[in-house]
Amino acid sequence: MRGWINYYALGSKKTAMTEIDAHLRTRLRIIIWKQWNVPKKRQWGLQKLGIGKGLARVTAYCGGRYQWVATKTCVSRAISKGILAKAGLVSCLDYYSERHALKLS
User: Fold this and answer.
1) Could you give the residue ranges of the DSSP H alpha helices within the chain?
2) So what's the pLDDT on residue 97?
3) What distance in Å separates the CA atoms of residue 80 and residue 26, rounded to the nearest whole number?
């Protein structure tokens, strides 16, 4: 991904990078949600990430609508951009902005 961003850093691709960054984070949230196979484990994971017991329980037992859960519920707050960055995800938009500024100067 970094090579691709470096290649396009001269052009103005901020909108594309924003969309790609949001899509990648959503897909990673879905993957993490699927890894927590059963509702009990999902509730435990959400509580570990700082979500209250009641809200974690409601979210954990809402069914298998992965895209909806990853974007419209407390999962997006629990598995935030900061959590993903700590896990090693490089934000496409941040990296692009950094490289774009260097290429223009």
Assistant:
1) 2-7, 14-35, 39-48, 53-60, 66-72, 75-78, 81-86, 92-104
2) 80
3) 10
Q: Note the pTM of the prediction, 2 decimals.
A: 0.83
Tokens of 60: 């954990």
d(CA 75, CA 59): 8
For the cut 70, the answer to whether the pLDDT of residue 99 exceeds it is yes
Q: How many C-beta neighbours within 10 Å does residue 3 have?
A: 7
Residue 101 reports pLDDT greater than 80: no
The span from the CA of 71 to the CA of 58, in Å, is 15
Q: Could you tell me if 42 and 59 are in contact, meaning their C-beta atoms sit under 8 angstroms apart?
A: yes
- For residue 63, the 8-state DSSP code is -
